[in-house]
Input
Amino acid sequence: MTNHLLLLMLFAFFVSTVFAVLLRDQPRAQLRTGAMMFGGFVAAAFVLGWLMYPLPL
Amino acid sequence: MTTKSTAAERPRAAAERGTLVLLCLAAWAVPGAGHLWMGRRQKGLVFLLALPAMFLSGLLLHGRIFPFELSEPLVALAAVANVGAGAPWLLARMTESGSGVVTAWTYEYGNCFLIVAGLLNFLVVLDAFDIGMGRK
Output
């Protein structure tokens, strides 16, 4: 496996799955929370990645 | 198979302290076992699959299982986090896997997977404890 993004997504998948199942009782709510958390992880990684792009200045 | 866990289906709180200790030990040793014990099958199965898979991913990514070195506080903290994974951690220690390959570009990723798998299992144990106490 030689892809940083893929590893990031794998990590986000595991963490969002566990948190969603911990926080919600209903499968539909778990799916929704997990998907939102996963999307948040990936989106935040892209945003932070671009914010850090010019560094070091 | 119903996967809903409504209040009516929830088992009664474990009244005895010994049962709670056993519940927490089981939940730590086998991720998800506490939830399975308390009748939360769906949650237990997800934890049983996800957490060992995450730990295994960390090992495959050449992560390191940290030793208890009190002279290196961050290493000791990472070791505590690793212990949280339960049986997968024990197995990895017994088979001497998880020595880590520092030169591998996935080394830090592997460490992250191993540490977070342990920490997440601590949260799962706490959740099982709350269920056992009748708080959830």
About this structure: The mean pLDDT of chain A is 93. The interface with chain B takes residues 1-2, 7, 10-11, 14-15, 17-18, 21-22, 25-27 of chain A (CB under 8 Å). Helices of chain A lie at 4-23, 27-51. The CA atoms of residues 4 and 10 of chain A lie 10 Å apart.
